[in-house]
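Quarterly update from the structural biology core.
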Amino acid sequence: MDEFMKAAIEEARQGMEEGGIPIGSVLVHKGRIIGRGHNRRVQRGSAILHGEMDALENAGRQPAQVYRESVIYTTLSPCPMCTGAILLYGIPKVIIGENQTFMGGEDLLRSNGVELEVLQDETCIELMRTFIEKNPQLWNEDIGE
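Predicted structure, tokenized:
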């Protein structure tokens, strides 16, 4: 596993330690993390702070070219909201820790020319399985069910 997925997993673990949902993400530009984040909906009482959204927010405002040269890593397949942000900013590649727990907008991303790499990483899968078993109501809230 590369250093960037490890960083996303660290973010996911931090989110769980804070009492939130263990999904982490990092935005990487030319081999350097420029934004990192994790799902903070619970911690911040937020409607939108999924892992990818938090990483984008923490990267701060960037020139359009930076997004077009970046890769976003996420421990879980991106939901429709995060998929929309990836498309809006023209991020060309997404590295996904796993999509067994939840299948997000991967077809929409692919149909818009975004390159996807799905790792089916056991650490990512186990983080989500354990969390969902203990917190099914919170998980359902997070994915809009």
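The first strand starts at residue 24 and ends at 29.
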